[in-house]
Design goal:
It contains two helices and twelve strands. The chain is mainly beta. InterPro entries: Beta-barrel_OMP_2 (IPR025665), OMP/PagP_B-barrel (IPR011250).
């Protein structure tokens, strides 16, 4: 009986490893690709009610994707993306010098019945590093840290030609967590949805003198992408 069991185990083992190797041979160890899509970006604060007058900024992202697939179900990925982020806001105030993001440095404009609309245009080079888990039929989830490098920062006002450079008032770096879900087809096409949760206070300006406290500003960005892996 023991001999029969041993023979059975050896037979199953001899079948398992060729099948496993055959499956893994069809998976490239390293691949690269491109992706692009839309952003819905906003800025929130834990100690200031920004949600009362902020809206999502619609933007674009695009760049390169790299992936090392070391198992049928597991991979490590990295991306280098240009990303348009920031925030839109509406209030009955208008920004004055010194300029500050989100219209926090303000004078009252209540005599004007219409709201002042402004857009904080903060463009970044994003570098997420993620672990990916693949499920059946190409479905995957991903998560990992992300570093963002500020490229430019401007506040633009819709009711005038005023555009203020506020790069000195935004931290040059941001970091946080990137979460995603997507689907990749057998021919390399993929779609994905990601959310970036900023952990760093992106404000480099101290508002304590004007407001009596210093708001902590954090980014939140939804990204919807399509891409192709070569």
């Amino acid at each position: 009986m023991k001999k029969a069991c041993l023979i059975f185990i050896m037979m199953m083992t001899s079948l398992y490893f060729p099948l496993k190797m055959s499956a893994q041979e069809n998976i490239p160890n390293f691949s690269y690709g491109i992706k692009a899509g839309l952003n819905l970006a906003n800025i929130n604060s834990s100690n200031f009610p920004l949600e009362e007058f902020t809206k999502n900024r619609l933007g674009f992202h695009g760049g390169l994707v790299f992936e090392y697939r070391f198992h049928q179900f597991f991979a490590l990925g990295a991306e280098v993306l240009y990303s348009q982020q920031g925030v839109k806001s509406e209030s009955d105030y208008i920004e004055i010098e010194p300029p500050g993001e989100l219209g926090i440095n303000q004078v009252n404009n209540s005599s004007n019945e219409s709201l002042i609309s402004s857009t904080g245009k903060y463009d970044y080079l994003n570098i997420p590093l993620v672990a990916k888990v693949y499920f059946f039929k190409g479905l995957f989830v991903s998560a990992g840290p992300q570093l963002s490098i500020l490229l430019s920062a401007k506040d633009e006002f819709s009711d005038s030609d005023i555009e203020v450079d506020v790069k000195e008032e935004i931290d040059n770096f941001d970091f946080g967590l990137n979460f995603g879900v997507g689907f990749q087809s057998s021919i390399g096409l993929f779609v994905s949805a990601n959310y970036y949760l900023g952990l760093n206070n992106i404000s480099a300006y101290n508002y304590s003198d004007e407001l009596g406290f210093d708001p902590k500003l954090h980014q939140g960005v939804w990204q919807f992408s399509v891409g192709y892996m070569f």
